[in-house]
Design a protein that fits this description.
Number of helices: 8
Strand content: 5-15%
Order of helices and strands: EEEHEHEEHHHHHEHE
Structural class: alpha/beta
InterPro entries: Leu-rich_rpt, LRC72, LRR_dom_sf
CATH superfamily of one domain: Ribonuclease Inhibitor
Radius of gyration: 30 Å
Oligomer: single chain
Largest sheet: 6 strands, mixed
Protein name: LRC72 protein
Number of strands: 8
CATH class of one domain: Alpha Beta
Strand order of the largest sheet: 1-2-3-4-5-6
CATH topology of one domain: Leucine-rich repeat, LRR (right-handed beta-alpha superhelix)
CATH architecture of one domain: Alpha-Beta Horseshoe
Helix content: 25-40%
Organism: Certhia familiaris
């Protein structure tokens, strides 16, 4: 039946906190507890968590179900800084009735693995990406190894619009044909289409990667300043070993 809790700032190392099944409406008493990893706030009377939880970067489990949270965007924004958050419960809140609620949370909180007691699937992540960032989804799909592009930039999720035929991929044999064409021209050709064989993409990447060069010298054969003054002889050129690789 607690409606409020005094500040817990004196417990600097507090990691686990159960305050569920109360009537709490304000979370300002947690603003100094940076080490929290598990926080159970379910079955309370919370209507807004703005400014109360965003500092909990180490939080891994957060239960907020069965409260009165109404603003989905505002609530998710507060949780974005929780890069370690893996388990999250938001069901039985008014915001959970939004038709795109689950996909919205999955997209903007990518670290969450278990949402409302259900595992987040790869298919859900792909659908959320197509819904909230279609351009990025198209780019990622177009450069994926082992498959062709099956959607265009303008295609929406669930659309039955026919896709244009994919372009023919550039293979190593084409590379030999081009010879010494400028690298930027080759890169333009490579980025336009995916590859049928992942090894072709690896070869293209290897041929366009910058060269790395390492040189080594046997410093035991290099004369010191004192030795140079005592000897009037002409010094032999240093033996330098240079290795180049991609």
């Amino acid at each position: 039946g607690l409606r409020s809790i005094p500040s817990l700032s004196q417990f600097h190392r507090l990691r686990y906190l159960w305050i569920n099944n109360n009537k709490i409406q304000d979370l300002t008493f947690l603003i100094k507890n940076y080490y929290l990893t598990e926080l159970y706030l379910n079955n309370n009377e919370l209507t807004d968590i703005s400014g109360a939880l965003k500092h909990l970067c180490a939080l891994q489990i957060l239960f907020l179900h069965n409260n009165e949270l109404k603003k989905l965007g505002k609530t998710v924004k507060e949780l974005k800084g929780m890069i370690s958050l893996q388990t999250l419960n938001l069901f039985q809140n008014p915001l959970a009735y939004d038709p795109d609620y689950r996909l919205y949370v999955i997209y903007f909180l990518p670290s969450v693995q278990l949402l409302d007691r259900k595992l987040v699937t790869e298919r859900e992540r792909e659908t959320a990406l197509h819904l909230y960032n279609p351009k990025k989804a198209w780019v990622m799909q177009s450069i994926a190894f082992g498959k062709r592009v099956d959607t265009s930039l303008g295609t929406m999720v669930g659309s039955s619009r026919d896709t244009p035929p994919p372009r023919r991929p550039v293979t190593p044999s084409v590379l030999k044909w081009f010879g010494n064409v400028q690298v930027k021209d080759l890169l333009y050709s490579f980025c336009r289409v995916p590859f049928e064989d992942p090894e072709d993409a690896v070869l293209v990447r290897a041929t366009t990667r910058s060269l790395m060069e390492f040189s080594s010298v046997d410093w035991n054969k290099v004369a010191t300043c004192q030795e140079r003054r005592l000897k009037n002889e002409e010094e032999e050129p240093l033996e330098k070993l240079t290795v180049q690789f991609r």
